[in-house]
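Hi V.,

Quick status before I head out on leave. The structure for the redesign project is tokenized and pasted below; the design run finished overnight.
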């Protein structure tokens, strides 16, 4: 659940950036992105994932999709 909260904070900052009456903080956006990444890394460790392998597979899949006619 904490990951979804962090993603929500990132979304809020991105929305605030485009609305002049809202408070936007680039420092806060950077902090929230870093926190979300750390939370995802922790989750992958808890799930005993080979994160490097999963990322490689995803990148390969995305590359193959781009080269399909």
């Amino acid at each position: 659940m904490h990951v979804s909260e962090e993603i929500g904070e990132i979304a809020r900052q991105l929305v605030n950036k485009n609305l002049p009456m809202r408070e936007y903080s680039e420092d806060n956006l950077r902090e929230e992105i870093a926190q979300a990444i750390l939370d995802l890394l922790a989750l992958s460790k808890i799930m005993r994932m080979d994160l490097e392998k999963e990322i490689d597979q995803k990148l390969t899949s995305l590359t193959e999709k781009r080269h399909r006619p």
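Above is the designed sequence. The chain has a mean pLDDT of 92.

G. will cover questions while I'm gone.

Best,
W.
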